[in-house]
Amino acid sequence: MNLTKIAAGLASGLLFGAGLAVAGMTNPNKILNFLDVRGAWDPSLAVVMAVAVPVSALAFRIGRRRARPLLAPSFVLPGRMRVNPALLIGSALFGLGWGLGGYCPGPAVASLSRPSLSLLGFLMAMGLGLLLSSAFRRRSVHDGPATEAAREPSRR
Amino acid sequence: MILATAALPTSFTPIAALAGGGLIGAAILVLFLTLGRIAGVSGIVAMALRPAAPTGERDWRAAFLFGLVAGPLLASALLGKPLVEPSPTSAALLIVAGLAVGIGTGLANGCTSGHGVCGVSRLSPRSLAATAVFMVFGFLSASVLRHLLPA
User: Fold this and answer.
1) b or e along B95-109 (b: 16 or more beta carbons within 10 Å of the residue's beta carbon)?
2) Closest CA to B139 of A41, A115, A2
3) Is residue B91 within a helix (H) or strand (E), and if so which, with residue range?
4) What ranges in chain A are assigned the alpha helix state H?
């Protein structure tokens, strides 16, 4: 059990969770009011992404100039490059679910400090869905997300 | 009964969104520069759920998820107000939504954080495509489908 790695994971998670909450992303109503273009529109989510994306870009820029991360032997980036049917169908399905409940994975997990049967139902179904799709993808030609994440980086 | 109730009205909060977006960006930066990993929550959850994954792969992910839950609590305490709110969607529909989100992000190998923020910031063609698609379908789902369901 590597404590520094756990500390790094924890720090990132705390920042992420706090960020989601401060931004109001742990309020599904704000998400739904963004995705629902009818009625009173709440563009807050657009601002969140407009800020998070450049900061994230900075992270990858800095990373590109380094030989390796601080606490791990190498950077792990998705090896796959091509747009394939699974990506498109999956994204469409994800979007449908997102616009239905106002939850995507991050905010849903981040909302667990206020548990409810509804939220747990969503999360359990989400977990089941992730396991099912992983099993499906492992049986097809491509690698599943697990092997992909553990793969050596193909590029920075 | 299967119902989708209307979302509660919310106001545009640009400053909070800016601050929160910055924190999310910082989280991505920390994870990438320390562990060399992309902060894609669907992937982190997927791997954490697999008992066959090696402990080295699960430990930091479990810690991340713990932080993800604790972060809003800390933020709420510091700001002195509740920040987590429930979804207006019914429990039954939330199960359907959960399945769609789980299967969808599993097939797409990413979600709003992995593709939408990390992938887009790297100008990854896969992520740009994924984000365009899930945004369109998200808008469709909330703007059209939700209104077709009995409320």
Assistant:
1) bbbbbbbbbbbbbbb
2) A41
3) helix B91-108
4) 3-22, 28-35, 44-64, 85-101, 105-110, 117-139, 145-150
Q: Measure in Å the smallest separation between the Cα of A113 and chain B Cα atoms.
A: 6
Band the pLDDT of B1: cuts 50, 70, 90. Answer: low
Given this model, what pLDDT does residue B63 score?
97
Choose among B11, B85, B111: nearest Cβ to A105.
B111
> 3-state DSSP call for residue B124?
coil
**Using CB atoms, which residue from A15, A68, A92 is nearest to B133?**
A92
Query: Could you tell me if the ipTM is greater than 0.90?
Result: yes
Q: In a mutagenesis test of the A interface, which of B5, B8, B11, B23 is the best target, namely the one with the most A β-carbons within 10 Å?
A: B23
Select the residue from A4, A5, A15, A84 to test the B interface by mutation, using most B Cβ atoms within 10 A. A15
